[in-house]
Amino acid sequence: MSASKASRLGEEIWKTRIEKVNAELVVLTYGTIVAQICKDFENDYTEVNKQLDKMGYNIGLRLIEDYLAKSNTMRRCSNFRETAEMIAKVGFKIFLNVTPTITNWTSDNKQFSLVFDENPLADFVELPDDGRAQDELWFSNILCGVLRGALEMVQMQVETHFISDVLRGNDTTEMRVTLVRYIDDELPPEDD
Amino acid sequence: MVIYSFYIFDRHTECIYSKTWLPPPSAATTSQHDIPTNNSTSGAGSANSTDPHHNPMRSARSAVSAANKASDDAKLIFGTVFSLRNMVRKLGGEDDAFISYRTAQYKLHYYETASNLRFVMLTDTGTLSMRNVMHQIYINLWCEYVVKNPLSPVEHKGGAGVRNELFELGLNQFITGLIAR
């Protein structure tokens, strides 16, 4: 599917098939969750990142079914480039109403970046001023987990992490997505 | 239109849901022999002695096998559709899909989602493609009542979380509506 076709599809689904909720409700709920996890793990931000990723992973495992149902996808993407288009222009569009830019492909077509011009999760957010959060906490890390979980269900093992975040004072918010491998079909157990 | 049965298999090749409305004609004739009768022990007189099915040992065993029959059927069906699907892809390319096959007795319809959930439906031979029907079951029933149920597990080992009231009710209504049409 071409890039423009994907963005038309995303736009159409967003307009016709998606139930909307108040964005501030989402932002404040997510912010509260992150704040609570920081508290629970006593500001061990490495652990907080891990927990957010794990939560996202569990969301992704289920969200993929909703994505497939809403987007009426009857076939698989034919390559990883098409997958990237669908993630950015359909997936992020229909669930968050943002369309991250796809850039920085590696030459083997296995690694790309999603650059978020806007990130609804990070509205109103300031990272804690303890001198460490700015360097250690990836506030929107839940998104990494969501992608990892969702792609695993459609037989792609990926590695995802943020490499910059405007909340930390970087110029952009950028997530790196790397295809590790395509997962084979599981075979039925042998008869004894 | 007659729908005999419906199966869902997960990506671990396990049958996580099955439902039978009517026995297909071929299965009906064989299962009559398999069903143990109550008088099989007392009524095993000389008249029946030639019939191996009235042997008490045999009927005890067939009671167990009747319980296993459903799960064996599901395994056989999965094996069949899995092989057919792989063969179809080998011959026609990755994008080609195995849709259905037909015998003199029934028609088997197959639909597979990108998340490797497989739907199988057995109908009478005259029924047109049920792919769309199974796609609707996936969208409107599976996603809504199984995936979005927060209490249902992500992996449906042994069918956990699938057989909930809303899903059963929705499926029954949907299928009844189809047959009545």
TrEMBL record, chain A:
The keyword Endoplasmic reticulum applies. GO terms for cellular component: endoplasmic reticulum; Golgi apparatus; TRAPP complex. It is found in: Endoplasmic reticulum; Golgi apparatus, cis-Golgi network. Keywords: Endoplasmic reticulum, ER-Golgi transport, Golgi apparatus, Transport. One of its GO terms (biological process) is macroautophagy. Its main location: endoplasmic reticulum. Belongs to the TRAPP small subunits family. BET3 subfamily. This is Trafficking protein particle complex subunit BET3. It comes from Sordaria brevicollis.
TrEMBL record, chain B:
Pfam families: Sybindin. InterPro entries: Longin-like_dom_sf (IPR011012), TRAPPC (IPR007233). GO terms for biological process: endoplasmic reticulum to Golgi vesicle-mediated transport. Part of the multisubunit transport protein particle (TRAPP) complex. Residues 27-64 are annotated as: Disordered. It is found in: Endoplasmic reticulum; Golgi apparatus, cis-Golgi network. Residues 27-36 have a biased composition (Polar residues). This is Trafficking protein particle complex subunit. Keywords: Endoplasmic reticulum, ER-Golgi transport, Golgi apparatus, Transport. PANTHER family: TRAFFICKING PROTEIN PARTICLE COMPLEX SUBUNIT (PTHR23249), TRAFFICKING PROTEIN PARTICLE COMPLEX SUBUNIT 1 (PTHR23249:SF16). Belongs to the TRAPP small subunits family. BET5 subfamily. CDD domains: TRAPPC1_MUM2. GO terms for cellular component: endoplasmic reticulum; Golgi apparatus; TRAPP complex. It comes from Sordaria brevicollis. Residues 37-50 have a biased composition (Low complexity).
